[in-house]
Amino acid sequence: ASFAYGRRHPVVDTNVRRVIARAVAGVESTASSKRDLAAMEALLPESEPDAQLTNAAMMELGALVCTARAPRCEACPLAVRCRWRAASYPAPGVRARAQKKYEGSDRQVRGVILAALRATGIPISISAIEALWPDATQRSRALDSLIVDGLVEVHDGEYALPR
After folding, report:
1. Which residues contact 63 (CB under 8 A, 6 or more apart)?
2. How far is Cα of residue 104 from the mean position of the Cα atoms in its chain?
3. By CB count within 10 A, which of 47, 102, 103, 139 is most buried?
4. Distance, CA of 134 to CA of 152 (rounded, Å)
5. Half-sphere exposure of 34 toward its Cβ, with a 13 Å CA cutoff?
6. What's the confidence (pLDDT) of residue 98?
7. What is the distance between the alpha carbons of residues 141 and 157, in angstroms, rounded to a whole number?
8. Which residues does residue 155 pair with via DSSP β-bridges, in sequence order?
9. Tens of pLDDT along 59-116?
10. Phi then psi for 120, rounded to 5 degrees?
């Protein structure tokens, strides 16, 4: 929604999560949470182009400067306002769970559905989505989560990427 359509929508990956945890919350990275989207939403400027730029900047900052193993705080543009740095880099209290395997996961089903929607470029029917994955319960759970996350929209009983 942000990068493809220029919408003001929070983008949260592991790098963004780490920057928010450290710079804003003052703690070492934590396990992912639904609060991550709200935290990033609060940081976004109102302007859609500025929000898109902020999303990209946060991803790059986490990937290149505020890295997991060797953060380069001396090069960080947020260093003077970073709560983690101000707190003398406290160690994490709880270690994040290891991510489950991708093969056969809900993440894979979500990816399959999104790939089909990108490939067609037009809304597709539920029967087309049903043909993509054999496990109806898992497919339904993945599709529902894509809708909740704003990555898929329903129009007249068909499914499409956000406009």
Report:
1. 15
2. 20
3. 139
4. 20
5. 3
6. 67
7. 17
8. 158
9. 999 999 999 989 999 999 999 999 999 999 887 665 556 667 889 999 999 999 999 9
10. -85, -35
